Amino acid sequence: MENTIGLEIIEVVEQAAIASAKWMGKGEKNTADQVAVEAMRERMNKIYMRGRIVIGEGERDDAPMLYIGEEVGICANPEAKAQCNPDELIEIDIAVDPCEGTNLVAYGQPGSMAVLAISEKGGLFAAPDFYMKKLAAPPAAKGKVDINKSATENLKILSECLGRSIEELVVVVMKRERHNDLIKEIREAGARVQLISDGDVGAALSCGFAGTNIHALMGIGAAPEGVISAAAMRALGGHFQGQLIYDPEVVKTGLIGESKQSNLDRLASMGITDPDKVYDAHELASGETVLFAACGITSGNLMQGVRFFHGGARTQSLVISSQSKTARFVDTIHMNEQPKVVQLH
Ligand SMILES: O=C(COP(=O)(O)O)[C@@H](O)[C@H](O)[C@H](O)[C@H](O)COP(=O)(O)O
Ligand SMILES: [Mn+2]
Ligand SMILES: [Mn+2]
């Protein structure tokens, strides 16, 4: 799979990031999102694969493109349809977030990225658009920290696994009212908290790499982003656990349906019989091969954002593969028809 489409998925996230970056700082989050979706879809439909979107736009925004269940790949491209033989193509499930951190793009803040994860058919958990309690940590703490333990206990474990004092640990938490107690507990335990307004995929990913000065992600974010983060951590060997949150009282927003009971009914209709199950990275991204790709829209811990120059743009992407066990940073100069210069920096 990596050989077949590894390079192509880099271009998919690059194109989405470039499109979205044109709307950076313009205060229009929906446009920044929409153009990323269109660019991602257009490039995806040139790939010789039979792709199916399992996590996409859709539930939250009732989107017309990259919706859950949409078929993508060369056979979905009207121009190629005549020559297309689906039986010859590899079947792939895809989780996408073409613009992860739409607010970050709209307001010119760091940490937004175009992101996707792919695996064989059935290899990614088709999470509903609910919330998810998440715990991400570096590879050294994999299987040692536990989402069922308190933050205080996990910080002690992290401190031992990483050979640093608790005071030397930094935990990313989304700045939300629902996290007030968690933030207090982390601070009282002695660790430092980095509050983010959006973009918990980037935070989870940062835990996978030493040198980012981020040692854990704790708290509740969106479930689809949880699966994408899990795919990255699965391929990288980091720790990720997620537990669906279906009670609107816990998150204090109306985003996950009217009532706890209606959400439980919906989970049951999806075949999720144990709604409180804690999933680890291997369960959320269970395929034999898992690939993760991201391209910075605005600069973050791991990737620089898109930099435009007259006639082109430069991007930085990351592709992580469970198959080749590589985390590959890709630095690309994109040249339009006739650039006056090919800008190096
Ligand atoms: O910040 C986020 C927004 O993602 P997007 O809509 O693609 O720009 C995600 O990283 C979060 O995981 C998540 O969507 C968020 O926590 C849910 O929203 P909220 O109710 O504001 O916490
Ligand atoms: Mn997102
Ligand atoms: Mn998004």
UniProtKB/TrEMBL annotation:
It comes from the Bacteria. InterPro entries: FBPase_class-2/SBPase. Its EC number is 3.1.3.11, 3.1.3.37. GO terms for molecular function: fructose 1,6-bisphosphate 1-phosphatase activity. Catalyzes the hydrolysis of fructose 1,6-bisphosphate (Fru 1,6-P2) and sedoheptulose 1,7-bisphosphate (Sed 1,7-P2) to fructose 6-phosphate and sedoheptulose 7-phosphate, respectively. PANTHER family: FRUCTOSE-1,6-BISPHOSPHATASE 1 CLASS 2-RELATED (PTHR30447:SF0), FRUCTOSE-1,6-BISPHOSPHATASE CLASS 2 (PTHR30447). This is D-fructose 1,6-bisphosphatase class 2/sedoheptulose 1,7-bisphosphatase. It comes from Sphaerospermopsis aphanizomenoides LEGE 00250. The lineage of its organism: Bacteria, Bacillati, Cyanobacteriota, Cyanophyceae, Nostocales. The gene is glpX.
